[in-house]
Amino acid sequence: MDVLLLMGGASAEREISLLSGKAVQAALLNLGHHVTVHDPIDAPPAADVLQRHDVVFLALHGTGGEDGQIQSLLEQANVPFTGSNADASRIAFHKGLSKIRFQQAGLATPDAEPFRIDEAIEKIQNRAARLVSPWFVKPDAQGSSLGVSKIDSPEDLPSAVDSVRKLDKAGLIEEAISGTEWTVGLFDSVTFPPVAIQAHREFNTYAAKYEQAAAKHTINRGAATEAEKQLMAVAREAYQAVGATGLARVDLICDVQGNPWILEVNTIPGMTETSTVPKAAAAFGWSLGELCERMCAAAIERQHHRNWTGNA
């Protein structure tokens, strides 16, 4: 295949995108595919450039990569691309929108209150008071745990809101569920083994996600337990609730009673050496190269279906 790999970009997650992209590039080259790399830090490639390749592989993380912007451009250019369509990407990237979809699907997700950074801090504190503490304060539209704070009281909100302000115009105050963090990777009809995350910090921070030894990942390589089957089933429902296709990762937390809570769906999960999805795929029996190859083939098949039916 002739693959155009988009990596880098101008988001706060640029460095992680470059790491993901380099891993994907090496994996595809190792299987004999032709890979052209483009870094859309200033502008995405023109339509005629996009159309010269068999498929576009998206390794862009964060704003401009996962929020539906590049997906919309690729749909307009009528070229195959990996991952979810523009609508699903936009919904999954915005935590408030995806939480509504989870609730509509009857899925357990932590209670939360939205806010805008231009609101008076007293109003934000009043909203937080409706929730059980401790809380996570998050940007509405960011990934990799960027700008996330864990706080215990309304007095801590000003600094947490300041962290959000650096990255976004809106945020979410969310009840912190005590328990074990899990991620579940999904690829169309395939559900990979769940990965338990033991972060060596209070929660799975940006550093814990991408620094070696910052978190311990545990994967059951045998038959799934009943608890793991439940996690996989709930993750599948969340994947479907936002309309995801291709590869995605669902982040959950399992409380002390064993109940799974959906946190978010990531439509372009990390592909670095410390990322959970490549590890889960390997436990399933797929190398990174095979996973990337399957992603490209599925993207081409979806585009053929769109062209045949006229549906996105």
TrEMBL record:
The top EC class is: ligase
Q: What is this protein called?
A: D-alanine--D-alanine ligase
Q: What does the cofactor section's free text say about binding?
A: Binds 2 magnesium or manganese ions per subunit.
Pathway info:
Cell wall biogenesis; peptidoglycan biosynthesis
Taxonomic placement = Bacteria, Pseudomonadati, Planctomycetota, Planctomycetia, Planctomycetales
Q: Which domain of life is it from?
A: Bacteria
Compartment(s) where it occurs, according to its Swiss-Prot or TrEMBL record: Cytoplasm
Please give the organism: Rubinisphaera brasiliensis (strain ATCC 49424 / DSM 5305 / JCM 21570 / IAM 15109 / NBRC 103401 / IFAM 1448)
| InterPro entries xrefs | ATP-grasp, ATP_grasp_subdomain_1, D-Ala_lig_Van_CS, D_ala_D_ala, Dala_Dala_lig_C, Dala_Dala_lig_N, PreATP-grasp_dom_sf
